[in-house]
Specification:
The protein is α+β, with helices and mostly antiparallel strands. 26% of the residues lie in helices and 29% in strands. A hairpin with a 5-residue loop joins strand 6 (96-98) and strand 7 (104-107). Helix 2 (45-64) packs antiparallel against helix 5.
Length: 564
């Protein structure tokens, strides 16, 4: 029999000072996790039960589409990452170290290299494909600012799957099947999710979709138009070329003195204009050569789009601005320079702009991009925002939602197999690189996202599929041994119906027990006490609705119906 005393149920009255999100606060207060270090948590027994139920749902659906489970090492030799080219590219989130023999290793933040090495060692023919392997295991990413509990931690549990194919059509089939499995997983967890087009980021590949739980606390911005059936992460959402050609007469551009106006807000205040008629110029370095990016002053640059356009880049330093343009930051502009210039489509919406003059304390007015920047190339450079035309139907606009990313699927293509020389023999006897896909779900993030959607002022309100126990029996008279056989019969009956049950047998007041039961969020509470001995009745309370119903201890079939 599971009891509070043997199941290590621990609750905390106050939330920690660093817990910003409700999910973080409640996971600490309900004794699901305990902080060990920044971004590193012990998963306590009650939390472990929730995580294991989440994991079993994932395992069920992965197995149902023909995936095979394995366990890959957390510690990865540097040679594999160097072979793929990511050892130097991944950044400081990759925790590197050397063993006693001075051999370099890393803690795995993801396992594309490892799984590619494994499959290439055993799969040699197209007849063995397609193949999908997955694991549910610990990852480590040395986040610069871990926060929000298990929502953005350094050490975390993740399901990552990897598929190998002999054709793009085969990858398409698995990619679609995996997305359907993800929808089933999150539906079984009681979550409302959206699937959005996304940027592949450090994982690589040319197509990806992320699954997001809609929540006000979400770190991701999602742009949607339900009528057009469009959903995309703001980083991946394209902005359209308006195709506008301005035929109005624009006076020749002229330089003006603008003292102490290095920012868009400064020049707007000085001239009494709006940011959308300012031209923002940014200098980047690609292979140590300068490129200028220009966009409307009221919009932000989209780094993912820039990387897709020009490849790896970095921001130019102040010294480089002075070297190439002769000015300080804030006065950069695209006129009279031989530096390549990319112009955002949004600059077609106004006939003329104010921009930097490449001279400190000076700007240029009446700049017409078509007329005055003839060497500029047009492209999509900016972050999409709510109110932009919908890429699927430009006659309508997109609106914004906040979301918590809980899953992500990628078409990797041959990104890793080519780099690591992982090949198979196709039907014509030719050696070909594997075509790959990868598919991740953050277990802790999903649990936390569920809490964000399923809680009230009193605590957690678990969906039945993830609740640590389906039923809690609150023994209000734990010293009265006459209640023991009744509780034992209740436990036996409830377990025979396929539900898990725990007994609060602590010598605490009824108020403490009621409060903790609500905090822990068990779907149903059964209250046993003196009334049970006097009248033979127990009470069943539904956590979600607060509804309480009296049931005779002899009417087990009635009690069973009340636990569905």
């Amino acid at each position: 029999m599971h009891t509070y005393t043997n199941a290590f149920v621990v609750t905390v009255k106050e939330s920690p000072n660093d817990a910003e999100l409700v999910s973080h606060q409640l996971m600490i207060r309900a004794g699901l996790i305990k902080k060990m270090a920044a971004g590193v948590y012990t998963i306590l027994p009650m939390g472990h039960r929730v995580f294991q139920k989440m994991i079993q749902i994932i395992r069920d659906e992965m197995n149902a589409i023909g995936s095979a489970e394995c366990t890959l090492p957390v510690t990865i030799p540097a040679d594999l990452w160097k072979k793929s080219g990511r050892w130097d590219k991944y950044g400081r989130e990759l925790l590197r170290f050397v063993d006693r023999h001075d051999r370099p290793f890393c803690l795995g933040p993801t396992h594309e290299e490892v799984i590619t090495d494994v499959v290439s060692a055993y799969v040699t023919s197209y007849k063995q494909l397609p193949m999908t392997l997955y694991q549910i295991h610990t990852k480590f990413r040395d986040e610069i600012r871990p926060r929000f509990g298990v929502m953005r931690s350094r050490e975390f549990i993740m399901k990552d799957a990897y598929s190998f194919h002999d054709s793009a059509e085969s990858l398409d089939a698995t990619y679609a099947a995996m997305q359907q499995a993800y929808h089933r997983i999150f539906e079984r967890c009681g979550l409302t999710v959206v699937a959005a087009q996304a940027d592949s980021g450090a994982i690589g590949g040319n197509e990806s979709v992320e699954f997001l739980v809609v929540a006000a606390c979400g770190e991701d911005s999602v742009l949607v138009n339900t009528e057009a059936g469009f959903v995309a992460n703001s980083e991946a959402c394209p902005t359209l070329d308006p195709g506008i050609v301005h035929h109005v007469s624009v006076p020749p551009y002229a330089m003006i003195h603008t003292p102490n106006c290095p920012r868009i807000t400064d020049i707007c205040a000085y001239r009494g204009i709006q940011p959308n008629v300012c031209l923002k110029s940014i200098l980047i370095m690609v292979n140590d050569a300068p490129i200028m990016l220009c966009l409307p002053g009221d919009r932000d640059i989209n780094e993912a789009k820039i990387q897709r356009l020009v490849g790896a880049f970095r921001w130019a330093t102040s010294a480089e601005l002075t070297h190439y343009l002769g000015c300080s930051p804030g006065y950069v502009g695209p006129l009279n320079t031989e530096i390549p210039v990319w112009l955002d489509y949004g600059l077609k919406t106004q006939p003329h702009y104010t921009c930097g003059a490449n001279q400190d304390d000076h700007h240029v007015v009446n700049v017409s991009p078509d007329r005055d920047i003839p060497h500029g190339q047009w492209a999509d450079l900016k972050m999409a925002i709510a109110g932009d035309p919908c890429p699927s139907d430009p006659s309508v606009t997109v609106s914004a939602l906040r979301g918590i990313e809980v899953g992500h699927v990628f078409k990797l293509g041959t990104t890793y197999s080519q780099a690591m020389d992982a090949t198979f023999t196709n039907a014509t006897g030719t050696r070909m690189p594997f075509i790959m896909g990868c598919y991740g779900i953050g277990v802790g993030r999903t649990v936390a996202a569920c809490i964000e959607q399923c809680h009230d002022d009193n605590g957690l309100c678990w969906p039945a599929a993830l609740a640590p126990f389906h039923v809690v029996i609150l023994n209000l008279c734990p010293k009265n041994t006459d209640l023991d056989p009744i509780i034992q019969r209740l436990v036996a009956a409830i377990e025979s119906w396929g539900y898990d049950v725990i007994v609060d047998n602590r010598p605490d007041s009824p108020g403490v027990k009621f409060n903790d039961a609500d905090l822990l969020g068990f779907p149903y509470q059964i209250i046993v006490g003196r009334k049970t001995l006097d009248s033979g009745h127990i009470e069943r309370k539904c956590r979600k609705t607060g509804e309480t119903i009296g049931v005779s201890v002899t009417q087990m079939d009635v009690l069973k119906s009340y636990l569905n």
